[in-house]
Amino acid sequence: MTKEQRHKCMASIRSKNTSPEMAIRRGLHKRGYRFRIHVKSLPGTPDIVLPRHKTAILVNGCFWHGHKNCRKFVLPQSNTNFWEAKIARNIHRDEITCAHLTALGWHVITVWECEVATNSLTQAALDRIGREIAESTLLRSTRSEMREKTRTEMKMEQEEIMRRQAALEAEIDRIYPLPAKIRQLSKTALSLSDYMEEED
Fold it and tell me: What domains can you pick out in the chain, each with its CATH number?
């Protein structure tokens, strides 16, 4: 290609609603998944977002995103330095996007253009997406159960400590009973102390 031909070819490539993206969207819809597309409120504006499953899907072009060991990723022979730098920036941007989404609690799935080159490959990609969603959902549920269990255990432990402390105080009071007059003075002193703290 001449420089002008390549420029025209590259300019005609869409960044949204690409053929691979549409194939994945159709497949997900047929399998009963409901999703949103190009969510600007999330880092990187993911192509497909499944809020119910807390999953973001990025559908990447093999050339533009530097898919390693892929026949679709071949650098042009002319102006190579420009293309290397451009694709390196895209790869770095993808890494940052995935890191931000993960930090926000989203499970990120990347689907490559070459994975949906044929119908059978598309079905395999959809199967992989389904497995990853199921595994992510199970992991998230397990973590939630563990956090809930930890809170319950801490509450039970605190209650046990308070019960033992009350039992100890009762035992001390039984062995070393305070005279009624001293007990009354102690209660009065505590009440006065509380009153002074409130005044302060």
Answer: 3-146 (3.40.960.10)
